[in-house]
Protein backbone atom coordinates (compact mmCIF):
# COMPACT_ATOMS: atom_id res chain seq x y z
CA UNK A 1 0.00 0.00 0.00
CA UNK A 2 1.25 3.46 -0.88
CA UNK A 3 2.41 5.70 1.98
CA UNK A 4 -0.63 7.82 2.76
CA UNK A 5 1.58 10.86 3.40
CA UNK A 6 2.71 10.70 -0.21
CA UNK A 7 -0.74 10.24 -1.72
CA UNK A 8 -1.89 13.24 -3.78
CA UNK A 9 -4.68 15.03 -1.95
CA UNK A 10 -5.84 16.57 -5.23
CA UNK A 11 -5.81 14.94 -8.65
CA UNK A 12 -4.60 17.46 -11.24
CA UNK A 13 -6.99 17.76 -14.16
CA UNK A 14 -7.74 20.26 -16.91
CA UNK A 15 -11.44 20.80 -17.63
CA UNK A 16 -13.02 22.27 -20.75
CA UNK A 17 -15.42 24.95 -19.45
CA UNK A 18 -16.24 26.61 -22.77
CA UNK A 19 -19.92 27.70 -22.80
CA UNK A 20 -20.58 25.78 -19.59
CA UNK A 21 -22.39 27.49 -16.67
CA UNK A 22 -20.23 28.44 -13.69
CA UNK A 23 -21.06 30.45 -10.57
CA UNK A 24 -18.94 32.88 -8.53
CA UNK A 25 -20.34 34.22 -5.24
CA UNK A 26 -18.78 37.11 -3.35
CA UNK A 27 -17.41 40.62 -3.51
CA UNK A 28 -13.88 41.92 -3.45
CA UNK A 29 -10.79 41.17 -5.51
CA UNK A 30 -10.73 37.42 -4.78
CA UNK A 31 -14.17 36.93 -6.34
CA UNK A 32 -13.24 39.22 -9.23
CA UNK A 33 -10.03 37.31 -9.94
CA UNK A 34 -11.86 33.96 -10.01
CA UNK A 35 -14.57 35.37 -12.25
CA UNK A 36 -11.96 36.80 -14.62
CA UNK A 37 -10.18 33.44 -14.93
CA UNK A 38 -13.45 31.66 -15.66
CA UNK A 39 -14.33 34.25 -18.30
CA UNK A 40 -10.88 33.78 -19.85
CA UNK A 41 -11.54 30.04 -20.05
CA UNK A 42 -14.71 30.64 -22.09
CA UNK A 43 -17.16 29.68 -19.35
CA UNK A 44 -20.70 31.03 -19.14
CA UNK A 45 -20.20 32.91 -15.85
CA UNK A 46 -22.78 34.14 -13.37
CA UNK A 47 -21.54 36.36 -10.55
CA UNK A 48 -23.61 37.07 -7.44
CA UNK A 49 -22.40 40.04 -5.43
CA UNK A 50 -24.01 42.55 -3.10
CA UNK A 51 -21.15 45.01 -3.65
CA UNK A 52 -19.26 44.17 -6.85
CA UNK A 53 -15.88 45.67 -7.65
CA UNK A 54 -15.51 48.10 -10.51
CA UNK A 55 -13.81 45.44 -12.62
CA UNK A 56 -16.62 42.98 -12.03
CA UNK A 57 -19.12 45.63 -13.13
CA UNK A 58 -17.05 46.32 -16.25
CA UNK A 59 -17.09 42.62 -17.13
CA UNK A 60 -20.85 42.68 -16.74
CA UNK A 61 -21.19 45.83 -18.87
CA UNK A 62 -19.13 44.10 -21.56
CA UNK A 63 -21.49 41.12 -21.34
CA UNK A 64 -18.61 38.86 -20.42
CA UNK A 65 -20.64 37.60 -17.47
CA UNK A 66 -24.08 37.91 -15.85
CA UNK A 67 -23.99 40.00 -12.67
CA UNK A 68 -26.72 39.67 -10.02
CA UNK A 69 -26.63 42.32 -7.29
CA UNK A 70 -28.23 40.44 -4.47
CA UNK A 71 -27.62 37.87 -1.74
CA UNK A 72 -26.93 34.24 -2.61
CA UNK A 73 -29.84 31.78 -2.68
CA UNK A 74 -29.49 28.03 -2.47
CA UNK A 75 -31.27 27.60 -5.80
CA UNK A 76 -28.51 29.62 -7.54
CA UNK A 77 -26.32 26.52 -7.78
CA UNK A 78 -28.85 24.54 -9.85
CA UNK A 79 -27.62 23.79 -13.35
CA UNK A 80 -24.04 24.88 -12.63
CA UNK A 81 -21.07 22.63 -13.40
CA UNK A 82 -18.71 24.48 -11.06
CA UNK A 83 -19.14 26.86 -8.11
CA UNK A 84 -16.66 29.21 -6.41
CA UNK A 85 -17.37 30.99 -3.12
CA UNK A 86 -15.25 34.04 -2.30
CA UNK A 87 -17.23 36.21 0.12
CA UNK A 88 -14.64 35.94 2.88
CA UNK A 89 -17.46 35.47 5.42
CA UNK A 90 -17.43 31.97 6.87
CA UNK A 91 -21.21 31.57 7.29
CA UNK A 92 -21.88 32.80 3.75
CA UNK A 93 -19.18 30.64 2.17
CA UNK A 94 -20.32 27.59 4.13
CA UNK A 95 -23.86 28.05 2.81
CA UNK A 96 -22.59 28.17 -0.78
CA UNK A 97 -20.39 25.11 -0.19
CA UNK A 98 -23.19 23.05 1.40
CA UNK A 99 -25.64 24.04 -1.33
CA UNK A 100 -23.26 22.98 -4.12
CA UNK A 101 -22.36 19.69 -2.42
CA UNK A 102 -26.04 18.85 -1.90
CA UNK A 103 -26.50 18.98 -5.67
CA UNK A 104 -23.24 17.16 -6.37
CA UNK A 105 -21.57 20.21 -7.91
CA UNK A 106 -17.81 20.69 -7.39
CA UNK A 107 -17.17 23.74 -5.22
CA UNK A 108 -14.13 25.79 -4.23
CA UNK A 109 -14.15 28.13 -1.25
CA UNK A 110 -11.24 30.57 -1.39
CA UNK A 111 -8.77 30.00 1.47
CA UNK A 112 -10.94 27.31 3.03
CA UNK A 113 -9.83 23.89 1.82
CA UNK A 114 -12.05 22.14 4.38
CA UNK A 115 -15.11 23.47 2.54
CA UNK A 116 -13.74 22.77 -0.94
CA UNK A 117 -13.91 19.85 -3.37
CA UNK A 118 -11.16 21.31 -5.53
CA UNK A 119 -8.54 24.04 -5.41
CA UNK A 120 -7.51 26.52 -8.10
CA UNK A 121 -3.78 26.29 -8.86
CA UNK A 122 -1.39 29.02 -9.86
CA UNK A 123 -1.47 28.99 -13.66
CA UNK A 124 1.04 29.87 -16.35
CA UNK A 125 -0.89 30.43 -19.57
CA UNK A 126 0.94 30.20 -22.89
CA UNK A 127 -2.11 28.86 -24.65
CA UNK A 128 -2.40 26.14 -25.75
CA UNK A 129 0.48 25.33 -23.39
CA UNK A 130 -0.65 25.61 -19.76
CA UNK A 131 1.19 24.83 -16.54
CA UNK A 132 -0.63 24.49 -13.22
CA UNK A 133 1.21 24.66 -9.89
CA UNK A 134 -0.27 23.77 -6.53
CA UNK A 135 0.82 23.16 -2.94
CA UNK A 136 -2.41 21.28 -2.25
CA UNK A 137 -3.68 24.32 -0.36
CA UNK A 138 -0.79 24.17 2.14
CA UNK A 139 1.00 27.32 0.96
CA UNK A 140 -0.70 29.22 -1.89
CA UNK A 141 1.87 32.01 -1.74
CA UNK A 142 4.62 29.45 -2.29
CA UNK A 143 2.79 28.22 -5.38
CA UNK A 144 2.79 31.77 -6.71
CA UNK A 145 6.53 32.03 -6.02
CA UNK A 146 7.21 28.78 -7.85
CA UNK A 147 5.06 30.03 -10.71
CA UNK A 148 7.20 33.17 -10.96
CA UNK A 149 10.38 31.09 -11.09
CA UNK A 150 9.03 28.72 -13.75
CA UNK A 151 7.63 31.61 -15.76
CA UNK A 152 11.03 33.33 -15.77
CA UNK A 153 12.60 30.45 -17.71
CA UNK A 154 9.63 29.52 -19.89
CA UNK A 155 9.92 30.91 -23.43
CA UNK A 156 7.23 33.45 -24.20
CA UNK A 157 6.55 31.88 -27.61
CA UNK A 158 6.21 28.29 -26.40
CA UNK A 159 2.46 28.51 -27.02
CA UNK A 160 3.07 29.39 -30.66
CA UNK A 161 5.39 26.39 -30.93
CA UNK A 162 2.71 24.12 -29.46
CA UNK A 163 0.13 25.52 -31.90
CA UNK A 164 2.45 24.93 -34.83
CA UNK A 165 3.05 21.33 -33.71
CA UNK A 166 -0.70 20.77 -33.39
CA UNK A 167 -1.25 22.04 -36.93
CA UNK A 168 1.44 19.68 -38.27
CA UNK A 169 0.26 16.52 -36.52
CA UNK A 170 -1.90 15.21 -39.38
CA UNK A 171 0.86 15.77 -41.94
CA UNK A 172 3.46 14.07 -39.72
CA UNK A 173 1.08 11.13 -39.18
CA UNK A 174 0.71 10.78 -42.96
CA UNK A 175 4.45 10.91 -43.54
CA UNK A 176 5.31 8.69 -40.56
CA UNK A 177 2.57 6.08 -39.99
CA UNK A 178 4.67 4.28 -37.37
CA UNK A 179 4.10 5.60 -33.84
CA UNK A 180 7.72 5.04 -32.80
CA UNK A 181 8.98 6.98 -35.80
CA UNK A 182 6.64 9.87 -34.99
CA UNK A 183 7.85 10.01 -31.39
CA UNK A 184 11.44 10.05 -32.63
CA UNK A 185 10.56 12.87 -35.04
CA UNK A 186 8.94 15.06 -32.38
CA UNK A 187 11.89 14.59 -30.02
CA UNK A 188 14.19 15.65 -32.83
CA UNK A 189 11.97 18.55 -33.87
CA UNK A 190 11.79 20.12 -30.42
CA UNK A 191 15.61 19.93 -30.17
CA UNK A 192 16.17 21.30 -33.66
CA UNK A 193 17.07 24.79 -34.84
CA UNK A 194 13.56 25.01 -36.30
CA UNK A 195 11.98 24.94 -32.85
CA UNK A 196 14.63 27.25 -31.39
CA UNK A 197 14.00 29.65 -34.27
CA UNK A 198 10.30 29.78 -33.45
CA UNK A 199 10.96 30.25 -29.73
CA UNK A 200 13.41 33.07 -30.40
CA UNK A 201 11.18 34.78 -32.94
CA UNK A 202 14.09 35.20 -35.34
CA UNK A 203 12.49 33.45 -38.28
CA UNK A 204 9.37 31.70 -39.46
CA UNK A 205 9.00 27.94 -39.87
CA UNK A 206 6.88 26.43 -42.65
CA UNK A 207 5.35 23.05 -43.36
CA UNK A 208 8.04 22.63 -46.00
CA UNK A 209 10.71 22.96 -43.30
CA UNK A 210 9.00 20.20 -41.32
CA UNK A 211 8.75 17.91 -44.34
CA UNK A 212 12.45 18.48 -45.00
CA UNK A 213 13.21 17.53 -41.41
CA UNK A 214 11.23 14.30 -41.82
CA UNK A 215 13.08 13.50 -45.02
CA UNK A 216 16.48 14.11 -43.42
CA UNK A 217 15.64 12.80 -39.97
CA UNK A 218 18.82 10.75 -39.67
CA UNK A 219 21.11 13.70 -40.29
CA UNK A 220 19.29 15.81 -37.69
CA UNK A 221 19.96 13.38 -34.87
CA UNK A 222 23.17 15.32 -34.30
CA UNK A 223 21.98 18.63 -32.85
CA UNK A 224 22.75 21.73 -34.83
CA UNK A 225 24.94 24.19 -33.02
CA UNK A 226 24.13 27.86 -32.60
CA UNK A 227 25.43 30.87 -30.68
CA UNK A 228 23.53 33.28 -28.47
CA UNK A 229 25.39 36.54 -27.82
CA UNK A 230 23.99 37.49 -24.44
CA UNK A 231 24.24 40.69 -22.42
CA UNK A 232 24.82 39.93 -18.73
CA UNK A 233 23.89 43.43 -17.58
CA UNK A 234 25.92 45.53 -15.12
CA UNK A 235 26.62 42.64 -12.73
CA UNK A 236 23.64 42.13 -10.41
CA UNK A 237 22.15 38.73 -11.39
CA UNK A 238 18.66 40.06 -10.64
CA UNK A 239 19.12 42.46 -13.56
CA UNK A 240 19.46 39.62 -16.06
CA UNK A 241 16.67 39.62 -18.61
CA UNK A 242 14.33 36.63 -18.67
CA UNK A 243 15.60 35.68 -22.11
CA UNK A 244 19.23 35.85 -20.95
CA UNK A 245 18.39 33.51 -18.08
CA UNK A 246 16.70 31.10 -20.47
CA UNK A 247 19.78 31.01 -22.68
CA UNK A 248 22.09 30.40 -19.72
CA UNK A 249 19.98 27.51 -18.47
CA UNK A 250 19.94 25.84 -21.89
CA UNK A 251 23.60 26.36 -22.79
CA UNK A 252 26.08 23.56 -23.41
CA UNK A 253 29.02 25.96 -23.49
CA UNK A 254 29.44 29.43 -21.97
CA UNK A 255 32.23 31.67 -23.25
CA UNK A 256 32.80 34.62 -20.96
CA UNK A 257 35.30 37.28 -19.91
CA UNK A 258 36.33 39.08 -16.73
CA UNK A 259 33.39 41.50 -16.71
CA UNK A 260 30.99 38.66 -15.93
CA UNK A 261 30.85 38.04 -12.15
CA UNK A 262 30.54 34.53 -10.66
CA UNK A 263 27.00 35.27 -9.44
CA UNK A 264 25.88 35.52 -13.07
CA UNK A 265 27.57 32.25 -14.02
CA UNK A 266 25.85 30.60 -11.06
CA UNK A 267 22.54 31.07 -12.88
CA UNK A 268 23.71 28.85 -15.75
CA UNK A 269 23.07 25.15 -16.16
CA UNK A 270 25.58 23.44 -13.83
CA UNK A 271 26.64 20.93 -16.51
CA UNK A 272 27.55 23.66 -19.01
CA UNK A 273 31.21 23.87 -20.03
CA UNK A 274 32.76 27.25 -19.21
CA UNK A 275 35.49 28.83 -21.31
CA UNK A 276 37.18 31.96 -19.98
CA UNK A 277 38.46 34.30 -22.70
CA UNK A 278 39.66 37.22 -20.58
CA UNK A 279 43.08 37.50 -18.98
CA UNK A 280 44.72 34.11 -18.50
CA UNK A 281 47.69 33.02 -16.45
CA UNK A 282 50.78 34.91 -17.50
CA UNK A 283 48.74 37.92 -18.51
CA UNK A 284 47.68 36.50 -21.88
CA UNK A 285 44.53 38.03 -23.30
CA UNK A 286 42.48 36.22 -25.94
CA UNK A 287 42.44 38.30 -29.08
CA UNK A 288 39.22 38.76 -31.01
CA UNK A 289 40.35 36.39 -33.74
CA UNK A 290 41.02 33.69 -31.15
CA UNK A 291 37.60 34.24 -29.54
CA UNK A 292 35.96 33.98 -32.96
CA UNK A 293 37.69 30.66 -33.61
CA UNK A 294 36.55 29.30 -30.23
CA UNK A 295 32.94 30.32 -30.90
CA UNK A 296 32.98 28.77 -34.37
CA UNK A 297 34.56 25.51 -33.20
CA UNK A 298 32.03 25.02 -30.40
CA UNK A 299 29.04 25.81 -32.60
CA UNK A 300 30.24 23.54 -35.42
CA UNK A 301 30.52 20.66 -32.93
CA UNK A 302 26.76 20.89 -32.36
CA UNK A 303 26.85 22.83 -29.06
CA UNK A 304 24.40 25.42 -27.82
CA UNK A 305 26.84 28.25 -27.14
CA UNK A 306 26.32 31.37 -25.05
CA UNK A 307 28.80 34.20 -25.58
CA UNK A 308 28.27 36.05 -22.32
CA UNK A 309 29.27 39.71 -22.17
CA UNK A 310 29.02 42.33 -19.45
CA UNK A 311 26.41 45.04 -20.07
CA UNK A 312 24.98 44.96 -23.57
CA UNK A 313 26.86 43.10 -26.33
CA UNK A 314 26.19 45.87 -28.85
CA UNK A 315 27.50 48.70 -26.64
CA UNK A 316 31.30 48.59 -26.81
CA UNK A 317 31.11 44.82 -26.53
CA UNK A 318 32.17 43.73 -30.04
CA UNK A 319 28.97 41.74 -30.29
CA UNK A 320 28.43 43.01 -33.81
CA UNK A 321 31.86 41.75 -34.93
CA UNK A 322 31.26 38.29 -33.49
CA UNK A 323 27.79 38.09 -35.01
CA UNK A 324 29.07 39.01 -38.48
CA UNK A 325 31.89 36.47 -38.27
CA UNK A 326 29.59 33.63 -37.22
CA UNK A 327 26.93 34.44 -39.82
CA UNK A 328 29.60 34.43 -42.52
CA UNK A 329 30.33 30.81 -41.54
CA UNK A 330 26.69 29.73 -41.63
CA UNK A 331 26.14 29.67 -37.85
CA UNK A 332 22.74 30.63 -36.46
CA UNK A 333 23.13 33.61 -34.11
CA UNK A 334 20.69 35.06 -31.61
CA UNK A 335 21.44 38.35 -29.84
CA UNK A 336 20.00 38.93 -26.39
CA UNK A 337 20.36 42.54 -25.25
CA UNK A 338 21.33 43.37 -21.68
CA UNK A 339 21.05 46.38 -19.40
CA UNK A 340 24.10 48.35 -20.43
CA UNK A 341 26.58 49.48 -17.78
CA UNK A 342 25.57 53.14 -18.07
CA UNK A 343 21.92 52.45 -17.36
CA UNK A 344 22.68 49.97 -14.58
CA UNK A 345 25.13 52.31 -12.86
CA UNK A 346 22.77 55.24 -13.28
CA UNK A 347 19.92 53.33 -11.68
CA UNK A 348 22.15 52.11 -8.82
CA UNK A 349 23.23 55.66 -7.92
CA UNK A 350 20.11 57.62 -8.86
CA UNK A 351 21.70 59.34 -11.87
CA UNK A 352 19.24 59.67 -14.76
CA UNK A 353 20.84 59.70 -18.19
CA UNK A 354 18.34 62.38 -19.25
CA UNK A 355 16.28 64.69 -17.06
CA UNK A 356 13.64 67.27 -17.96
CA UNK A 357 14.94 70.83 -17.82
CA UNK A 358 18.47 69.51 -17.33
CA UNK A 359 19.47 67.54 -20.42
CA UNK A 360 17.58 66.04 -23.33
CA UNK A 361 20.31 63.83 -24.74
CA UNK A 362 23.04 61.40 -23.75
CA UNK A 363 26.21 60.35 -25.56
CA UNK A 364 28.16 57.14 -24.94
CA UNK A 365 31.88 57.15 -25.74
CA UNK A 366 34.79 54.90 -24.91
CA UNK A 367 37.96 56.16 -23.25
CA UNK A 368 39.85 53.10 -24.38
CA UNK A 369 42.68 53.86 -26.77
CA UNK A 370 45.89 55.80 -27.08
CA UNK A 371 44.84 59.44 -27.22
CA UNK A 372 41.23 59.52 -28.31
CA UNK A 373 42.12 61.72 -31.27
CA UNK A 374 39.27 60.18 -33.27
CA UNK A 375 36.70 61.97 -31.11
CA UNK A 376 35.29 65.42 -31.84
CA UNK A 377 36.15 66.96 -28.48
CA UNK A 378 34.89 70.37 -29.50
CA UNK A 379 31.38 69.06 -30.17
CA UNK A 380 31.39 66.95 -27.02
CA UNK A 381 32.40 69.96 -24.91
CA UNK A 382 29.78 72.30 -26.35
CA UNK A 383 26.75 70.00 -26.22
CA UNK A 384 24.45 70.47 -23.23
CA UNK A 385 23.97 66.78 -22.65
CA UNK A 386 25.03 63.85 -20.51
CA UNK A 387 28.36 62.33 -21.44
CA UNK A 388 29.00 58.72 -20.37
CA UNK A 389 32.48 57.29 -20.73
CA UNK A 390 33.18 53.58 -20.77
CA UNK A 391 36.67 52.23 -20.10
CA UNK A 392 37.88 55.68 -19.13
CA UNK A 393 39.58 55.03 -15.78
CA UNK A 394 43.13 55.00 -17.18
CA UNK A 395 42.59 58.14 -19.26
CA UNK A 396 40.24 60.13 -16.98
CA UNK A 397 42.67 63.01 -16.46
CA UNK A 398 43.36 63.29 -20.19
CA UNK A 399 39.64 63.21 -20.99
CA UNK A 400 38.93 66.01 -18.51
CA UNK A 401 41.80 68.12 -19.88
CA UNK A 402 40.58 67.75 -23.47
CA UNK A 403 36.99 68.68 -22.57
CA UNK A 404 38.08 71.73 -20.56
CA UNK A 405 40.47 72.79 -23.34
CA UNK A 406 37.58 72.72 -25.80
CA UNK A 407 35.28 74.85 -23.67
CA UNK A 408 33.52 72.65 -21.09
CA UNK A 409 33.37 74.24 -17.64
CA UNK A 410 35.87 72.80 -15.19
CA UNK A 411 33.08 72.90 -12.57
CA UNK A 412 30.89 70.48 -14.54
CA UNK A 413 29.66 67.72 -12.19
CA UNK A 414 31.17 64.26 -12.66
CA UNK A 415 30.26 60.90 -11.15
CA UNK A 416 32.38 57.74 -11.21
CA UNK A 417 30.72 54.38 -10.57
CA UNK A 418 32.86 51.30 -10.02
CA UNK A 419 31.23 47.86 -9.99
CA UNK A 420 27.81 49.42 -10.39
CA UNK A 421 24.85 47.41 -9.00
CA UNK A 422 27.16 45.02 -7.07
CA UNK A 423 27.62 44.90 -3.28
CA UNK A 424 31.17 46.26 -3.68
CA UNK A 425 29.91 49.29 -5.65
CA UNK A 426 31.91 52.49 -5.21
CA UNK A 427 30.57 55.91 -6.20
CA UNK A 428 32.53 59.16 -6.24
CA UNK A 429 31.16 62.60 -7.14
CA UNK A 430 33.14 65.73 -7.88
CA UNK A 431 34.05 68.33 -10.50
CA UNK A 432 35.46 67.81 -13.96
CA UNK A 433 38.74 69.58 -13.08
CA UNK A 434 39.44 66.94 -10.43
CA UNK A 435 38.46 63.86 -12.47
CA UNK A 436 41.95 62.37 -12.70
CA UNK A 437 42.63 63.00 -9.01
CA UNK A 438 39.28 61.51 -7.94
CA UNK A 439 40.09 58.30 -9.80
CA UNK A 440 43.58 58.02 -8.30
CA UNK A 441 42.77 59.15 -4.73
CA UNK A 442 39.81 56.82 -4.38
CA UNK A 443 41.50 53.82 -5.95
CA UNK A 444 38.97 53.54 -8.76
CA UNK A 445 39.62 50.60 -11.07
CA UNK A 446 37.81 48.93 -13.94
CA UNK A 447 35.05 48.15 -14.50
CA UNK A 448 33.86 51.70 -13.99
CA UNK A 449 31.67 54.22 -15.79
CA UNK A 450 32.22 57.99 -15.76
CA UNK A 451 29.18 60.29 -16.05
CA UNK A 452 29.74 63.95 -16.89
CA UNK A 453 26.98 66.54 -16.79
CA UNK A 454 24.36 68.19 -14.61
CA UNK A 455 22.42 64.92 -14.30
CA UNK A 456 25.00 63.84 -11.70
CA UNK A 457 23.41 66.39 -9.35
CA UNK A 458 20.23 64.29 -9.42
CA UNK A 459 21.93 61.31 -7.76
CA UNK A 460 20.91 59.77 -4.46
CA UNK A 461 23.57 61.85 -2.75
CA UNK A 462 22.59 65.29 -4.01
CA UNK A 463 21.41 66.44 -0.58
CA UNK A 464 24.30 65.08 1.49
CA UNK A 465 25.70 67.45 4.11
CA UNK A 466 29.31 68.58 3.70
CA UNK A 467 31.59 67.24 6.40
CA UNK A 468 29.20 64.61 7.79
CA UNK A 469 28.90 60.88 7.41
CA UNK A 470 25.48 59.41 6.76
CA UNK A 471 24.63 55.75 7.41
CA UNK A 472 21.72 54.31 5.45
CA UNK A 473 21.19 50.79 6.77
CA UNK A 474 24.01 48.32 6.71
CA UNK A 475 25.06 48.61 3.11
CA UNK A 476 25.31 52.30 2.28
CA UNK A 477 27.69 54.94 3.58
CA UNK A 478 28.15 58.43 2.19
CA UNK A 479 30.71 61.10 3.03
CA UNK A 480 32.01 64.36 1.61
CA UNK A 481 35.73 65.02 1.88
CA UNK A 482 37.01 68.28 3.36
CA UNK A 483 37.71 69.87 0.01
CA UNK A 484 34.02 69.91 -0.85
CA UNK A 485 35.03 68.89 -4.38
CA UNK A 486 34.01 65.27 -4.18
CA UNK A 487 31.60 62.87 -2.53
CA UNK A 488 32.19 59.16 -2.07
CA UNK A 489 29.79 56.25 -1.74
CA UNK A 490 30.79 52.75 -0.72
CA UNK A 491 28.42 49.81 -0.91
CA UNK A 492 25.11 49.78 -2.71
CA UNK A 493 21.54 50.64 -1.82
CA UNK A 494 19.45 47.53 -2.37
Mean pLDDT: 85
Number of helices: 16
Q: What is the CATH architecture annotation of the largest domain?
A: 2-Layer Sandwich
Classify the helix fraction into a percent range.
Answer: 25-40%
- Report the biggest beta sheet as strand number plus sense, adding barrel if it closes: 8 strands, mixed
Alpha-carbon distance between the termini? Answer: 51 Å
Give the name of the CATH superfamily of the largest domain.
Tetrapyrrole methylase, C-terminal domain
Number of domains: 4
**Parts with pLDDT < 50 across at least 5 consecutive residues:** 462-488, 490-494
Structural class: alpha/beta
Number of strands: 20
Oligomer: single chain
Which key features would you list for this structure?
494 residues, Cobalt-precorrin-4 Transmethylase, domain 1, 4 domains, Rossmann fold, eight-stranded mixed β-sheet, five-stranded parallel β-sheet, 33% helix
